[in-house]
Amino acid sequence: MATPKCTPRIDFSTEFGAESLEGKSAIVTGAGGGIGESIARALARAGAYVTIAELNEENGEAVARSLREEGFKAQHHKTDVTKWTDLVSAFTFSPTKTIDIVIPNAGVASNPLIPWLTNTPEDATGNPLPPSQAVVDINFTAVYNTALLAIYMFKKYPCLPSPTSDSTSTCTPPPSAKQIIFVGSMASYRDMPGIPSYGGAKFGVRGIFKAMRGLAPDVLGEGREGVRVNMIAPSWIRSGMTGGLVPFLERRGVVVGSPGDCAGVVLRIVGDAGVYGRAVAVLGNGGSFDLCDDYDGLEGTREILAASKRGAFGDQTTREERKKGKPKLEDLLPNDGKEIGVAI
Questions:
Q1: Which range marks the domain in which residue 259 is found?
Q2: Is residue 180 situated within a structural domain?
């Protein structure tokens, strides 16, 4: 097995001034709210031209319009990330079709398994109907498709054509490193008991990240820079998906982060050409840290254990506490089959 291509860990204790993204173009899926919106706003304010690939037309256009009113460059493209044709359309929405930064962010929350087992829909013969595949389709398959499409477009449209030529072989300015930043989760690393669709999908995103950071340096063609591949792994983030759980989490000592915490880490990654193949845990109150998801870091295990010991993930309910009747997270989840606010 080849050693993954990674640069040294990110030191978040050092000051860093992100370079301007002026002239760069970015696509952020699911950017009509939450983490995606914060990332899209941060990129636009740093100078990038941002395409907001969002299914909710009202939300997506509202974000793009507000950025334009602030004097930044943004456009909305109605995109169902589960449809390949919609993804292609989002990538080719720009007349130049040139994209520099791709962030497959779109995701949905998940139902726990137990309610489905308790009240499993059945057909006329008494056999179970298939469970919804929405979480896997959006949180995993769409991410995979977006990443593959990004590589294809990076290769086919390396940069803006020269004004004197219709050929993309003559570029101005010269092509720089393209980037993919995956949005995984701490559920990509830590157990998500009873919620296999979400945990499985997010582990899958981590797998895509680890595979794609090992792409050959000349994947886009001889003489061109490779693709910079990184990932953020948010812990509990305050959003519409987690709002109902925040009081419980805070009682357990969890420092719930904000979408802005995620955007800040993305800016650090995007603006630092020395960051490649890194996965970053995003926590609130400035607690984000490099997971060291490589061989030297024991695939992230070392840093996660250290973070747990210093209380980064709150005071975990113990088996003894459960016997005494103290609530655990799954006790607070609805069992009516509705989507729940689990988004870590």
A1: 25-122+132-332
A2: yes
